[in-house]
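Before a colleague's protein record goes any further, I have to sign it off. What it holds is a sequence and that sequence's fold in token form. Would you go through it and say whether the fold makes sense for this chain? The record follows directly below this note.
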Amino acid sequence: MKTTNRLINEKSPYLLQHADNPVDWYPWGNEAFEKAQIEDKPIFLSIGYSTCHWCHVMAHESFEDEKTARLMNETFISIKVDREERPDIDGIYMSVCQMLTGSGGWPLTIIMTPDKKPFFAGTYFPKENRFGRPGLKEIINGIKELWYNKRAELLKSADEISAAVKSLFSSEDAKELNETVLDKTFEQLKSRFEPDFGGFGSVPKFPTPHNLSFLLRYWKRTNNIAALQMVEKTLIEMRKGGIFDQIGFGFHRYSTDKKWLVPHFEKMLYDQALICNAYIDAFLVTKNVEFKKTAKDILDYVIRDMTSPFGGFYSAEDADSEGEEGKFYLWKVKEIRDILNNEETELAVKIFDIQENGNWFDKVHSEYNNTNILHLAKSFDDLSIELNINKNVLVQKVGNIRQKLFDVRNKRIHPDKDDKILTDWNALMISTFCKAAQAFNENVYINVAENGIKFILSHLTDKKGNLLHRYRNNDASIPGLLDDYSFIINAFIDLYETTFNENYLEKAIEFNDYLVNNYFDNKKGGFFFTPVKGEKLLVRQKEIYDGAIPSGNSIALMNLLRLNRLTGNDKYEILASKTARAFSNKLYNSPSSFTQALCALDFAFGSSFEIVIAGEKNSSEVRNMLETIRKIFIPSKVILLNDPDSEKIRKLSTFISEQGKINGKTAVYICRNFSCNLPVTEVDKLRKLLN
């Protein structure tokens, strides 16, 4: 009979995966640190997440091994942290790992003193020495020797590392930024662009959709066609590749090759939200229906597989099933033949590049895997010409094939789902459903977005109405972090601009005031990741790096600018200016690392548009005006509805009081760069003005 450790009482699926390890794991908390002080032991901190493939590997090799666990228990007090539950802890110690080793990733392995000062860092370690990579058992024995015989050196190193980490998050001397930083960002992205298959940098290749969002804004500003071409190439190749689940839809986390063919198979909620945004914007720019179709496919996947019965969105789906990475998604030729008729098989082989011996090279086993990752060999336009089939007929045939394969695949053992619900990731998804509702004029997306926000307000707030970070199994906990607040403020603004329910704008203002009062650095500008009265960690982070997820500071910067334009209140623009200045050296020196922040700066530099529609919310005239506006890509805009029946909106946004209907007709007022045009009352004139 298996025994369990203290993780058995946790809610995190990742922590529960380790609850029956022979390692005497503790969750992060005072009990563990007090125990380390009493027993005079260092801390072994292991950080990961439930869908992480190499986290599973290290667990099976080492943490489930009795001898390794015994050695760990003798030497350390061991703590497990779910990085998605505690991004504040993960952010600090990931910075340590990157500083000490030059790289990072998960599982993250940190060894530190009982007062949380690190002196050793790394990621995955095999149990035994392997190909030049030290084994965990050797590392433990080495640390044990140093702890008891050379502790003074270890403690000195820990102090030096801690001081260096604190300096990473300290504010710099500010400089004034101008529009040249946008040009510099474009040039850096252009230099890293991979022209054959799109994307940026070498392998592994990540989608990084905020790079694409920046490039679309840059194209809009400069009409530089190269910026648009980089976006189109990347989105087309991603949609064709194995990184997109051609059968069940949704995007995997990243590609292990430059062709987007072989993915790391986990699916993250935030990727679906951010990548979908890029496809929506690209559709508005190009009117390419494949971009619209891809965006809708992503949303169908989220609604089907990632939405709880109560409206919140689940966090992720695992890369592994039945102990193998990607097994759920891979196909053998015989399986295809057994499911499809001869004509369909022949077509599927050509469409999805299916090979008898497999179509991808398994680097782990240095061989072709005898399985196929389904991907589009060519675009539907090219395939319809090559196969001499009408494109619409071809799309229908492929749809029938896809459905047959999906029905069979659905009977396989599914990857585990991480069903915890995170406020920040949910807010990103809510914003995406809002943008899809606007761009595609589909009310079903509004319903999904509103159900999502209702879930957060009813399940992820405390008695005072402040945000909590994580919900699972009827338990909500962990005080809200910067990302939770900045992303939810963004979602409320998007909800307002989608529904024109003034309560959403009011909520955005309310949460933004709380964020400023509890997270803003009044001395240097910018927002801390944790609140002023939050848990005392090694350092109070303040970061603007836009990694897999945009930083809370980047989103907060955009929120402040949008709220300024929506309300006319200058305090928001002043705070935005202070935030930008706080990170100005970083933004200037390496702007392509901060492309979400650069999207906000693009808004700040202008041209930005304030659009006020004066008319009854549910009238056909207002709907026609809105549809006209929403068909055009205008990224730096805000929209207000001055409904004669709403007093609240004129209290929240006092400057629209004089912008009413004209001679009983719905009127649209457009101001650009603090200068206003004459109002228009006809759709054709509005369209000309916007263009």
About this structure: The first strand starts at residue 25 and ends at 27. The mean pLDDT is 93. The CA atoms of residues 433 and 448 lie 7 Å apart.
